[in-house]
Amino acid sequence: MTVNGNELLYQLNRANGHIDSDPLVVHQLLPEDIHPLASLPALGYVSPLNSLGYPTLEASAKATIGLQNPDAIIGGTRMGPVTVVVYVEKQLGGAAGTPVLTPAQTGPSTPSWALTNQDTSKAKNANDDVITIRVATTSDGITFNDVGAATGLEDPFSVTLNAIRWLGSGSLIRLSNGHYGMFFGAGNCLDNDSDGFHFIGYAQTVNPVKSPLDLLAWNVVNGFDNPILSTDSVTDPVTQVTYPANAPLVDVTGADILIPGQVAPWIPPLGFNTNFFSGRVYDPQAIVTDDSNVTIIFAGYNTPQPSSNLGDYRTIGRFQVRFPHGYLASPENKDDDGQK
Predict the structure, then answer these.
(1) How confident is the model over 234-268, as pLDDT tens digits?
(2) Which string of DSSP letters, residue by residue, matches 50-67?
(3) Does residue 60 register a pLDDT over 70?
(4) Is the dihedral of CA 89, 336, 3, 144 positive or negative?
(5) DSSP state, 33?
(6) Would you give the distance in Å from CA 158 to the centre of its chain?
(7) Where are the domains of the chain?
């Protein structure tokens, strides 16, 4: 993100004793010729190969101030003298400051039929993590001032199997009518993971965005049951209800086919599924190419728990979404943060 002419890179702190509990790590980028990451330290973390556990953070890194339990920045946009960001707040186990979850609000263990390519010995246990989508402003990219919690995107206490309980990643785009759109990765108690990797959806702001407050109210357009892209369809053997209810917007039949040898010797209990994102699909990054087309770069795994099959790895894919002509703000009109 570019703030007042400074190009900044934000990362999660994965150092020992800091995982999922610390501010975001910040490095300033100073590109040289064709090397956009030239200014970064050789190793973001100091970790001798023979060490055990997680590494320590290298000394030149800075940290954000004022973001509440940040887990991801969904996007940012320039408004007058400040940059406004939409980000994910995650509180593990419903940490202090959030309502205490009742048994009816705690995500139950993953149903045995809910995920394909699942190692049934590693089914997810009950999950009471709480996420909130928040808005904040900054003038330097380091210190942030909270604006508030966004509404209309997720229900952090729902156990309904087609609800959005956790929203974990995403990307913002500007629309020609002054509203903003958001592509996001999300999930619920079907996979019971607060990283939100069951499907890719889309939402828009309720109002045209004229101030940071206008980024607090959203309407979901493509949710769980009408996703843009989704992990494998599954059916409850008791109720015969299928999740999602409708086929994804993006048809990937026959695309990116894996072969059994690529996941050998691991054999999924329910058989082999071929899409590289059969188990996880998340982190959509939107690139506006003209006033009607958006290219989405996303990540996926063949299995919901990659440790089940060490031959599986994160794969990056892409697809395009077409809006009506003139629906998107022109990509030539960029603000100070490079948002289109």
Answers:
(1) 999 999 999 999 999 987 766 666 777 776 666 66
(2) T--S--EE-TT-EE-BS-
(3) yes
(4) negative
(5) T
(6) 19
(7) 1-63, 68-322
DSSP letters of 160-208?
-TTS--EEEEEEEEEBTTS-EEEEEEEE-TTTT-TT--SEEEEEEESS-
- Whole-angstrom CA distances from 254 to 276, 284, 302 are 11, 21, 15
With a CB cutoff of 8 Å and minimum separation 6, the contacts of 38 are 30, 31, 32
Q: What are phi and psi of 261, to 5 degrees?
A: -65, -25
CA triple 141-131-172, angle to 5 deg? 50
The Cα angle at residue 297 between residues 295 and 298, in degrees rounded to 5: 140
> Do 26 and 141 form a contact (C-beta atoms < 8 A)?
yes
Q: Which residues of 262-276 are buried (b: 16+ CB within 10 A; e: fewer)?
A: ebeebebeeebbbbb
**Structure confidence by residue, pLDDT tens digits, 76-87:** 999 999 999 999
In this predicted structure, which of 53-67, 145-159, 169-183, 240-254 has the lowest mean pLDDT? Answer: 53-67
Burial of 260 (0-12, 13-18, 19+ CB in 10 A): exposed
Q: Where are the alpha helices (DSSP H) in 225-287?
A: none
Which residues does residue 127 pair with via DSSP β-bridges, in sequence order? Answer: 107
Please tell us whether the domain made up of 68-322 is placed in CATH 2.115.10: yes
Cβ atoms of 150 and 214 closer than 8 Å: no
**Complete edge-to-edge strand list for the sheet that includes strand 25-29:** 2-3, 6-11, 25-29, 62-63
